[in-house]
Structures are given as structure tokens and as C-alpha cells.
Amino acid sequence: MTAPPRPEALLADMVTATHILIAEGVLDVFGHIAVRDPDRADVFWHPRAVAPARLCAEDILPFSFDGQPLVAADTPLYSERVLHCALLADPSKGASLHYHAASLMPYCMGGRALVAISQTGAWIGEQVPLWDSRTAFGDTPMLVTDHAQAQDIATALGPGHLALMRGHGAVVTGHDLRDLTFRAIHAAREADTLTKAAALGPVTPLSPGEIALAGSFSPAAVARGWDHWTALHTGGAEGPET
After folding, report:
1. What is the phi-psi region of residue 24: left when phi exceeds 0, alpha when psi lies from -120 to 50, beta otherwise?
2. What contacts 24+ positions apart, CB below 8 Å, involve 6-13?
3. Half-sphere exposure of 2 (CA within 13 A, CB side)
4. Is 8 a catalytic residue?
5. Distance (Å, whole) CA 110 – CA 236
6. What is the pTM of this model?
7. Run of H or E including 33
């Protein structure tokens, strides 16, 4: 299987998205993004295991859906890249993220469900699924390094866009990279809001009807978010959609 031409605009946006997520305080040293190639549905782009704050376009490599790089890699790769193989197998999802946002981590412990309580968080649904590796795989090192585990997470996620991993972190998907960035930031904000609101007293989750009405957002909202974050954190402006 040969590597496709490098989609330079997309790779530049992947670097930008990584830097935005870091600046917004939701992407940590172990988080990573993947995006399906715009012209090859059987290829996705994913970074080498470098420090995210130092990521540049040259660090992003093409991968096949068996998790193997299509070009020589002279630095370590993320062992959890198999997550993206499973998440991006859904053709409606063009980008995926694995991260360990501090605001999400308390909801990865199983004590309280993450639920939608605000308009910008309605898309997460009535209750975010919590995947527990122990259920099907027993004791593990709390890393997802094989396709069976990755597929189990994708099944738990289903048609949604956010799933938590017990004791570990979260996966987020988007229709494209900018949609993913929007969701990743607002998922962490919703968790932070819920934590703070619960400390004040009882919290009222959104109703199923409210979720149905508010649970999708327009491309214009995503574009506005991207324009805002690129101007705020990179000094750039909104460019062509990728």
C-alpha cells in the first residue's frame, strides 16, 4: 500500500488544532489527533509520538487502518494509534482525538455520570458512555494497544461523539478536524461546568427534548469557533475548510 500525497493544508490545520487544544488547557502531553485523508478513505494522518507543543507538519505521518505507517518512521509512534483505526472506521467521522483533559478525568472514575447541562454541551447527550476495559479484557496496563480493545471502545461510542474510558481519559470524534476541535473544547468545558455546578447544589440536566433541539450546531458555529481560537492562540485567521 502506497502513501498518498501529503495534504499540506490539512496537516497545517492539524498542527494548529493541536496548539489550540493545548492553549485551551484540554490537550495534555499524551493526547493525539487523527484525521482521515481527504482523498483516500483507507488512510488517516496521525503524529509521531513527539511532544504535542513541538508538533510540526513533518511529524504527521500517513497510516493504514491496520495501524501501520505508510512511510518510514525513525521516531516512536503512539501505541494507542489503534484507537483511531476503530473510531475512523465509521465513515461519518473524519477526525478523532484521544486526550486526558483534567476536567473530564473525575468522570472517568465511575462515581458520577457526565451529563449535558448546558446549550453548548447538549451534543454529548443524556449520559456519556463510560467504557471499562476490565469488563471484557480483565486487568490491563490501562492503555489501548490492540484492535479488539479499540473496537470495543468504538462500539461503546456508537453514533455519538464522546466516550469516557474508566481510569484513563476520553475519545472524541468529529465530522472533520474543526468540528472535532469544537467538540473537544466544549466537552471539557461541560465537565468543568457540571463539577462546579454540583458543588453549589442540585443540578438539572437537560431534558431529552432539549437535547434533541439543542444537540446539533451549525457549520457557522464551528467556523466561528475556529476563527476565534486561531486568532486568539496562533495569531491567524480562518482559512479554507479542510
Report:
1. alpha
2. 6/57, 6/62, 7/37, 7/38, 7/39, 7/45, 7/242, 8/57, 9/239, 9/240, 9/242, 10/35, 10/38, 10/45, 10/177, 10/242, 11/45, 11/57, 11/60, 12/57, 13/177, 13/178, 13/239, 13/242
3. 3
4. no
5. 40
6. 0.94
7. strand 32-36
Residue ranges of domains in the chain = 8-233
Distance CA 159, CA 170 (A): 15
CATH assignment of 8-233, among 3.40.50.720, 3.30.565.10, 3.40.225.10, 3.30.930.10: 3.40.225.10
Q: Over the stretch 85-120, which tens digit does the pLDDT of each residue have?
A: 999 999 999 999 999 999 999 999 999 999 999 999
Contact 175, 223 (CB under 8 A): no
**pLDDT at residue number 148:** 97
Residue in the structure block whose three cell numbers are 505508510: 70
125 touches 113 (CB < 8 A): no
* Segments of the chain with pLDDT less than 70: 236-242
The catalytic position among 80, 126, 210, 238 is 80
**Of 202, 201, 203, 177, which Cα lies nearest the Cα of 190?**
203
